[in-house]
Amino acid sequence: MQSSLFETGVQRIADEQTGPITYQPDVITPELAASWFDALLKGVDWHSGSRMMYERMVEVPRLHCHYAADDPSLPQVLANALDVVKAQVRAPFDSIGLNFYRNEHDSVAPHNDKLHELMPNQPIVLLSLGATRTMVIRRKTPPHLKTELELEAGSLLLMGWNAQLHYDHGIPKLRRPVGPRISVAFRVRPKRNGDE
């Protein structure tokens, strides 16, 4: 799969039929990205986790945190980030998930987001802060073409709902040292029974 760079600075990874998936660097300045990274690193309640894989319980190789967009305890930096994302992407984002990749040993295996946890036809947007990490985006059907995308601080990656049907994405471990990165994911979740 070839990626093309448009005049607007938006890189298209997948078309509307199977995606869309687009990447836009420099949505916020490096200085603002560094400031938001520091604020989130120190200001949110990071959690570790474990999950069943290969018939055994393993530690999830990253830390995480989650907020509802209307949570009264939402850190101001996330409210500001939500404003920036909504100015770029028209969607009623109501869920903000954070992943903290502490070093080159932290990762996320190739996967797609679970469609029952997303509102149909609403995108997922990832804001990257901190060190640049490689995301591998791979087509599920043969010939399984893939793109290795360098997610820089201050960039946005948009994945359409439809992209979860056609592509896996992941952040692999690295063999070289790399600094910490925070990924801020904006989603639209379906209302659950009992939600107002």
TrEMBL record:
Coiled-coil positions: none
Keyword Phosphoprotein tagged: no
MF terms (GO), sorted A to Z: dioxygenase activity
Pfam families from the UniProt entry: 2OG-FeII_Oxy_2
Domain called Fe2OG dioxygenase: residue spans: 92-190
Keyword Oxidoreductase: yes
PANTHER family linked: ALPHA-KETOGLUTARATE-DEPENDENT DIOXYGENASE ALKB HOMOLOG 3 (PTHR31212)
Protein name (record): Alpha-ketoglutarate-dependent dioxygenase AlkB
